[in-house]
């Protein structure tokens, strides 16, 4: 897992790095399982879908 490969100086550092990773994972990293979109893009498409 990601957190097992990181070295943290303290809990504040861990929290900052975790926030950056979550942001990267949800807004920048594309996922094959959702058609190459980021989770944010997929969610945005869902809420903007006209019924």
In short:
The protein is mainly α and 51 residues long.
Task: Describe the 3D structure.
- With about 50 residues, the protein is mostly helical.
- It has one domain.
- Helix content is about 55%, strand content about 0%.
- The chain contains 2 helices and no strands.
- The chain has helices spanning about 10-25, 40-50.
- The radius of gyration is 15 Å and the shape is elongated.
Task: Chart the SSEs and their pairings.
Elements (H helix, E strand, L loop, with lengths): L10 H17 L11 H10 L3
Oligomer: single chain
Distance between the termini: 39 Å
| Computed CA radius of gyration, to the nearest angstrom | 15 Å
Count of DSSP-assigned helices: 2
- Structure classification: mainly alpha
User: Residue ranges: pLDDT <50 for 5 or more in a row?
Assistant: none
Q: H/E order of the elements?
A: HH
Give the % helix.
Answer: 40-55%
Principal-axes geometry comes out as elongated
Sheet-strand content, in percent, reads: under 5%
Could you describe the largest sheet, including whether it forms a barrel?
A: none
Average pLDDT metric = 92
**Number of strand segments:** 0
- Count structural domains: 1
Task: State the main characteristics.
single chain, 0% strand, 51 residues, mainly alpha
């Amino acid at each position: 897992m990601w957190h097992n490969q990181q070295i943290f100086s303290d809990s504040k550092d861990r929290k900052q790095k975790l926030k950056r990773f979550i942001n990267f994972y949800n807004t920048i990293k594309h996922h094959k399982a959702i058609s190459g979109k980021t989770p944010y893009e997929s969610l945005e498409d869902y809420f903007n879908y006209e019924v």
